[in-house]
Amino acid sequence: MSGGDEWILLDFWSSMFGSRVRIALAEKGIVYERREEEFPKKSEVLLEMNPTYRKIPVLIHNGKPICESWNIVQYIDEVCCFTPFLLPTDPYDRAKANFWAHFIDHKLHPVSMKTMRYETKAQLEEAEKEMVECVKLLQGELGEKPYFGGERVGYLDVILGGFCSWFCAYKELGSFSILDEFPKLKAWTHRCMQRHTFSASLPDPDKLCHLVRRIRNRNALDLQ
Asked: Does residue 155 form part of some domain?
């Protein structure tokens, strides 16, 4: 890859989707410029680079925008075609990784948002129950492997890695400890957080707790 490549990431500090892109860039050793968006305001650059969805993250590579975090991570791996590779080379393994990435974005993420925004204690309990079921399935996919990618970090580790700080924050919020209920996933999270590529790319769980409390208080939803 040319040393003259320019990488710019439009991002927001608490975004698990932005975090996974930061992890992928770190795993590949890419030096980039990070531009923090002022949520909920959208910068002119963001609107220009992602006029369709108008949301972060957006990776701008040599002036060209790439949108949607799962797509960005794949792009990084394919453009920077040197080790460590993130995507499985076997077509079946790649299909499985993409399946679970879709599960994380379309099942786990919506449920995790429900644990922050609820109107009754019953709604919170139902959201937590749904989340437990999602995480149970993910732990089943992890199995006895140290990483979802096997012996080394792979695509699915990066995709789920954006949630590591959030898993830690749930316990501090006094809601429920998702990691204590799933020891294999807890060990995976600890293993990932020991990697500088993860720890330096993820938000501080304490800062996340403060954010969630503000969201709950703003909407008068803190029922604890």
From this structure: yes
